[in-house]
Specification:
Elements lengths: L2 E5 L3 H13 L3 E5 L2 H10 L4 E5 L7 H11 L4 E6 L4 H9 L4 E4 L4 H32 L7 H13 L6 E4 L6 H10 L8 E5 L5 H9 E2 L11 E2 L1 H4 L4 E5 L6 H13 L1 E2 L8 E2 L3 E6 L3 H6 L5 H7 L2 E4 L10 H16 L4 E2 L1 H9 L5 H15 L4 E2 L6 H13 L4 H19 L4 H8 L3 H11 L4
Parallel strand pairs: 1-2, 1-3, 3-4, 4-5, 6-13, 6-14, 7-10, 10-13, 15-16
Antiparallel strand pairs: 8-9, 11-12
Helix pairs in contact: 2-3, 13-15, 17-18, 18-19
Length: about 450
């Protein structure tokens, strides 16, 4: 119930307004002057202070100033006669929510008060959302267009039950995105179960997924619940789904389509209600072309694709990430860690093949090894020094030599990123496979 403090020295006006407000099912307390109002504010919180401006002792303007200190989250609505309109406008400039001229229609007063309460509701929702987002995204730090688009998409798809396929290079924060999707869903207070498909031996994966009955195989001394059962009603994250064996892919497809399965060694069909999230650093379309991943399963998993950009595509976020990591590691060392401008420029020039995870590891390393609170270029890893030295050296080299060296390094990086697959590397570079082969031959690159 909304709490209103009515401050009015005129008894007839006070009783008239109080009775009308109570008809709206609002709780109304009254005070005859500003001093009495302050005493009320010391004892209770009010959503709204409805006060006359001209009163003996302490008027509405002084009450506004002092009420903001006593009750900063209460709005103030002023009632004024024609002769004190300028005072009312001055109060608005000092933070009052609204004013109304006497004599006024009661219906007009009620409409204005309801409008103030609606604004309070919006403010409360915004504050709640801001706090919720700060908890949901945790280490997903950034202000670039790329990362803000990710935040927006998570807010949009989090509350749904749709299956989401989270893709991106290693270290881009796929698990953090999955965590955020779960926390923004209506399943946030339900189980959140994760399984890394690449970390469990193939022979044990089916049991991990669906569980087993006692005696189902050698060593099965007791019944075990699988991850799907444990996640019933909540969310299941299948990390590195691209490494799932083909035989288990078919069984996973059945669970997605029918929502049911049997434990190993069991005959009873078990139904579950699970929101499925999947993540992968692999190109699943390429895996389908190579015959390592089922196309029909890919269609089922990628209902909503969520691709996380590599750090090299959002370099404007590096300084924010560095500041975030420095605060965390600085607290552990009991000091305020800083990074010199030169060291920051070295980080920004680096392409971070390991993405945010690599940046975090670098900051942790230098925060431990740095002798003082300021981290300089000399404290950074050797490969970043080499990059800085190479940049300085190229400044005095002929342009054709610099371009040739850059092209060679670009080819090497693309081939390494694609595990030596020339077709894939050529596609990434935007050239034909024949052109790639010719350039490799020119630069003496062998696989």
């Amino acid at each position: 119930m909304k709490q209103i403090l009515l401050v009015e020295d005129d008894e007839i006006m006070r009783i008239t307004v109080r009775d009308r407000l109570k008809r709206e099912k609002w709780q109304v307390d009254v005070a005859i002057n500003g001093h009495e109002a302050l005493n009320r504010l010391d004892q209770k919180h009010y959503h709204l202070i409805l006060s006359d401006i001209r009163m003996p002792g302490m008027g509405g303007m002084e009450l506004l100033e002092r009420a903001r200190k006593h009750s900063p989250f209460s709005d103030m609505f002023l009632m004024t006669a024609y002769g004190s309109v300028e005072d009312a406008i001055a109060c608005l400039r000092q933070g009052a929510a609204d004013y109304i001229l006497k004599p006024f229609e009661m219906d007009d007063l009620i409409i204005r008060i309801n409008r103030i309460f609606e604004i309070q509701t919006v403010r409360a929702r915004c504050a709640s959302l801001e706090e919720r987002c700060s908890q949901e995204y945790q280490d997903m730090i950034g202000n670039s267009t790329a990362i803000r688009n990710i935040f927006s998409l998570i807010n949009q798809i989090g509350p749904t039950d749709s299956t989401v396929l989270i893709s991106g290079e290693s270290g881009t924060g796929k698990e953090l995105a999955a965590n955020a999707l779960h926390r923004t869903s209506h399943r946030a207070d339900k189980p959140y179960i994760r399984i890394n498909c690449a970390a469990i031996p193939e022979g044990l994966l089916e049991s991990e997924f669906f569980g087993h009955e006692k005696g189902a195989f050698t060593g099965a001394h007791a019944k075990k619940l699988g991850r799907f059962e444990l996640a019933d009603g909540g969310t299941l994250l299948l990390d590195e789904i691209g490494d799932l064996p083909l035989g288990l892919q078919a069984k996973l497809l059945r669970v997605i389509e029918e929502g049911e399965f049997e434990r190993l060694g069991g005959t009873r069909t078990i139904r579950v209600d699970v929101r499925l999230l999947c993540s992968t650093a692999k190109d699943l379309k390429e895996e389908v072309r190579e015959g390592r991943f089922r196309q029909d399963l890919l269609y089922r998993l990628s209902v909503i694709p969520l691709h996380l950009p590599p750090l090299r595509e959002r370099t404007e976020d590096i300084s924010l990430l560095v500041a975030h990591f420095l605060r965390g590691f600085g607290r552990k060392r009991g000091m305020d860690l800083t990074l010199s401008n030169e060291a920051m420029q070295s980080l920004i020039r680096y392409d971070f093949p390991g993405n945010v995870r690599e940046l975090k590891n670098i900051i942790e390393r230098v925060s431990v090894l740095s002798p003082g609170p300021e981290i300089n270029c000399s404290d950074l890893p050797a490969d970043l020094h080499a990059l800085r030295t190479a940049v300085n050296e190229t400044a005095s080299m002929p342009l054709n030599v610099v371009m040739a060296s850059a092209e060679k390094q670009c080819l090497i990086n693309a081939l390494a990123h694609c595990d030596g697959n020339r077709t894939k590397a050529a596609g990434q570079l935007g050239i034909s496979r024949k052109n790639l082969w010719e350039k490799m031959k020119l630069h003496g690159i062998e696989l």
